[in-house]
Specification:
The protein is an all-alpha fold. The chain is built from eight helices and no strands. 24% of the residues are buried.
C-alpha cells in the first residue's frame, strides 16, 4: 500500500516567516525587559528604604545588590537580543533568498546575530525563541546549523551578561557607580 515512510515536504522560507518570528522575539523581549525594569526599580527603592532605616546587615545588602546587578544584566541581554532580532528582520528578504538558492554567502555577516539569539534562548529562559531555532534548523544547511551551535561569534557583551550566576565585584562596583 505505498510507501510506509512519508517524506515531509518543507515549504520554502519566506520573508514573512522570518519577520514574524523576529517580531515575536522582539515584542516578547520588550515585555520581559519592561517587567524587569519595573522589578529593578522596585527593588532599588526597597533597598534604599532599608538602608535608610539601617535594618540591613552588610551581607544582606551585598545579596540584594547582587540581585539588582543580575536584573540589570538580564535587561541588557534582552536589549541586545531585541536588537539582533530587528537586524535579522531587516534582512529577511536576503535570508529567504539565500535559503531558496542555497547560497548562504550573502548572510555570513549575520551569523553572529543568529548565534546570539540561539545562544540566549536558554539564558533568557524564553521558550518562544525556540521557534526561531526551529526555523534555522529547518531551512539552513546542517553544516551552517552546526557552526551556529558552536557559539564562536556570540558578542562578548552578551556573554558577559550570563558569564556567572553571581555578579563579580567589578560588576557590583560598576552598578553602584552608575
Amino acid at each position: 500500500m505505498g510507501n510506509a515512510q512519508q517524506t515531509r515536504i518543507i515549504k520554502p522560507l519566506e520573508k514573512f516567516d522570518v519577520e514574524l518570528v523576529c517580531d515575536k522575539i522582539f515584542h516578547h523581549l520588550t515585555l520581559q525587559r519592561n517587567r524587569k525594569i519595573n522589578e529593578l526599580a522596585t527593588k532599588e527603592r526597597e533597598l534604599a528604604d532599608k538602608l535608610r532605616t539601617k535594618r540591613r546587615s552588610y551581607s544582606d545588602t551585598v545579596i540584594d545588590i547582587g540581585v539588582l546587578v543580575n536584573l540589570l544584566k538580564y535587561i541588557t541581554a534582552a536589549k541586545i537580543v531585541s536588537r539582533y532580532s530587528q537586524l535579522i528582520k531587516n534582512h529577511s528578504m536576503i535570508i529567504a533568498d539565500s535559503c531558496k538558492t542555497n547560497n548562504y554567502t550573502p548572510i555570513r555577516e549575520l551569523s553572529q546575530y543568529f548565534e546570539g539569539i540561539v545562544w540566549s534562548s536558554d539564558k533568557l529562559n524564553l521558550s518562544y525563541i525556540s521557534e526561531f531555532n526551529q526555523l534555522i534548523q529547518r531551512h539552513f544547511r546542517n553544516t551552517d546549523v552546526q557552526e551556529i551551535m558552536k557559539f564562536n561569534k556570540v558578542d562578548k557583551e552578551l556573554l558577559n551578561c550570563f558569564g556567572s550566576i553571581e555578579p563579580s565585584p567589578v560588576e557590583v562596583q560598576e552598578y553602584l557607580v552608575q
